[in-house]
Every structure is written in structure tokens, then in C-alpha cells.
Automatic annotation (TrEMBL):
Residues 1-130 form the RNase H type-1 domain. CDD domains: NUDIX_ADPRase_Nudt5_UGPPase_Nudt14, RNase_HI_like. It comes from the Bacteria. The keyword Hydrolase applies. The keyword Hydrolase applies. Gene3D superfamilies: Nucleoside Triphosphate Pyrophosphohydrolase, Ribonuclease H-like superfamily/Ribonuclease H. This is RNase H type-1 domain-containing protein. Residues 184-312 form the Nudix hydrolase domain. Residues 1-20 are annotated as: Disordered. It comes from Candidatus Magasanikbacteria bacterium RIFCSPHIGHO2_02_FULL_41_13. GO terms for molecular function: nucleic acid binding; RNA-DNA hybrid ribonuclease activity.
Length: 334
């Protein structure tokens, strides 16, 4: 008998309160089991492994001889498929347990799916975490912030785009009259200043319709995704690098009064390459490494893409030796 498992794992604060979500179906799509398990304090990756281990055990109890495992954790799927190395000691034991369970089935298949396809397992995770932590986190696919804090509570979204939403509201003026105010809200993003020794990673990127330009690793935060998890995911996907040390440098809007664009920038120290990059069809990326002085000079390049406030910090470092040393120590930690 063949069964299909959908698994998800999540941790609030990473590490923090964590839970796994499991949904098991037969080949006709009938749900045979759907549940979540509280794991205590753990990381997202540990929770993802715990979910697939629990699902494999449950499927075996249900009499499965063939199994298809679907999960939105690319890390877990690629590691269990043998494509990515398992370097983290705390994951090696979990990887071995999951691998041994897979071998107990006559046939098995591992497949990475998008989070939108894994909504049921995601809901099980959040159901458990809501109960254990007393705080509500919306499942993937729900409107996470219907009315963002950057606009008044009575504002209405009049347009929903791929990246930008438009909000409008009636604003009382100083003379008592009213006018329609408007603001663009862009989906959140992450950027990273990645170091290896005394060098900083700079990506030479090319996108359809956009000539080659230098920039930092980073990308869009998915709905419901923690900023740190987004940064870790983007670094792995764009470059094939991982690191244990992610330090939040700044998190603020990179837009003016009419645009709200939340960007979280992390300093990532001593990154190590574990795989080849997995790029989208619309990306071409070449990894380069520069020293600190050359990194600062990038602020003078019009095409260099990074948060505007980071360019200000870089300009100040070029003009002021004290601020230059402060920024150098902030990035490299020495």
C-alpha cells in the first residue's frame, strides 16, 4: 500500500517553541491522519526532521509499504536525497533516523513542494504553537497583515500586486476638509553582509531586462516566513553557502513617506559553501569576494543595490575614519 505524507516544521524565534505538522493521505487523496506535535524549544530544521520522522513511523503503523514524502523544506529533502551534506551535528542523528526509516519501505520518493501546497501540514504546526505559546500566527496563504502598521487602521487595500500593494484612506486636513492619501506597501525582504575571513561577498547579478549589477545576497520574504529563515534560505539558494552566525544589523523601511518597504539586513560571518546554488530561471549570479575598502567603494557605484541606509553607513565610513573602524568591527566582529 502506498501512502503520501505532507510534513512541516516550525519554530517561533528559531530556536524557540517548535512543533511539527503531519498529514498522511492515500493515493485517492483521502486523509488517513492529520496531527501536530509540540517539540519544546528547537530550531526550524530540527522541527522539519522531527515531522518527517513522525510521519514515516505513522505511515508504517498504517501499513504502508511504499511512501512518497512531500515537504517544503528543501534542506531536508535534498539532504535525505543525498544531494546535500549534513554538517550540523544536531541534524546528523535525525538524518540517520529518517534515512533508516525510509529504508524500511519497499519504495520511497522524496519531493520538495512549495509552501502553498503544504498548507494543511503548516496549519497543524500553527495549531500546536498557538495552543502552547498563546500567540496566533496565521497559516501560509492567509493575509498576514491585512492592515499594516504603516497605514491608519481604517485604510483600505485598493490593489494587490505581486510585490506591491496599494492602500488608500481619507485623511482630515488642518482646515477640517478631507483628502485621499495613498501609500505603497512592498513585500518584506532580506539582505546579508556575508563574510569569509576578511573578505565580503558581493554578487554580480543579472536579471531579464536588467543589465549586470553588483549587490548583496538576499531576496523576498515569503508570506508568514520569519526574516531570519528567509535570510538563511536565500543565502543557501543563491550561493550554496551556510553559516551559523546570523546577526541582525538593521531592520527598517527602505522607502520614503509614500513607500513602505521593510528590509532586514543580517551580518553573516564565516560562511561555508556546502552545495551549488539553486537559482530561479530569472537569475544569473556570480559570486565574488572583496576586501573591506573595496566594499565601501561600492557605495559610489550607482548600480550597486543594497538598502539605502546601508549606503549612507558606507558613505560615512568613507568620510570618517572613526565611523569606518566602527563599521569594520560591526561587520567582522573583531
Amino acid at each position: 500500500m502506498k501512502l503520501i505524507t505532507y510534513t512541516d516544521g516550525g519554530s517561533r524565534s528559531n530556536p524557540g517553541p517548535a512543533a511539527s505538522g503531519i498529514v498522511i493521505k492515500d493515493t485517492d487523496g483521502k486523509t488517513l491522519a492529520s496531527y501536530g506535535e509540540y517539540l519544546g524549544v528547537a530550531t526550524n530544521n530540527v522541527a522539519e526532521y522531527a515531522a518527517i520522522i513522525s510521519a514515516l513511523k505513522k505511515a508504517r503503523e498504517l501499513g504502508a509499504t511504499e511512501i512518497e514524502c512531500l515537504a517544503d523544506s528543501k534542506l531536508v529533502i535534498e539532504q535525505l536525497s543525498g544531494n546535500w551534506k549534513v554538517k550540523e551535528p544536531n541534524l546528523q542523528k535525525l538524518w540517520l533516523e529518517a534515512w533508516n526509516l525510509l529504508q524500511s519501505f519497499k519504495q520511497y520518493k522524496l519531493k520538495h513542494i512549495l509552501r502553498a501546497k503544504n498548507a494543511e501540514a503548516d496549519a497543524e504546526v500553527n495549531k500546536i504553537l498557538d495552543k502552547e505559546t498563546g500567540s496566533k500566527k496565521k497559516s501560509f496563504g492567509e493575509d498576514i497583515t491585512p492592515i499594516p502598521d504603516c497605514v491608519p487602521p481604517h485604510a483600505k487595500r485598493v490593489f494587490k500586486g505581486v510585490l506591491f500593494d496599494t492602500y488608500q484612506w481619507e485623511q482630515e486636513l488642518f482646515d477640517g476638509s478631507h483628502a485621499t492619501f495613498e501609500k505603497l506597501v512592498r513585500k518584506a525582504s532580506t539582505d546579508m553582509i556575508v563574510t569569509q575571513g576578511d573578505s565580503i561577498m558581493v554578487l554580480k547579478q543579472e536579471q531579464p531586462g536588467k543589465p549586470l549589477y553588483p549587490g548583496l545576497p538576499g531576496g523576498q520574504t515569503e508570506p508568514g516566513e520569519d526574516h531570519l529563515i528567509a535570510a538563511q534560505r536565500e543565502l543557501l539558494e543563491e550561493t550554496g553557502y551556510v553559516a551559523e552566525n546570523f546577526i541582525l544589523y538593521k531592520s527598517q523601511s527602505d522607502g520614503g513617506s509614500k513607500l513602505y518597504f521593510p528590509v532586514s539586513t543580517y551580518i553573516v560571518r564565516d560562511a561555508q559553501k556546502i552545495q551549488e546554488a539553486h537559482l530561479d530561471a530569472g537569475e544569473k549570479i556570480q559570486i565574488t569576494w572583496v576586501n573591506f575598502d573595496d566594499f565601501l567603494q561600492l557605495a559610489r557605484q550607482e548600480k550597486f543595490t543594497c538598502p539605502l541606509w546601508l549606503k549612507f553607513d558606507m558613505y560615512e565610513a568613507l568620510l570618517d575614519q572613526i565611523k569606518k573602524e566602527i563599521l569594520r568591527k560591526t561587520i567582522f566582529g573583531d
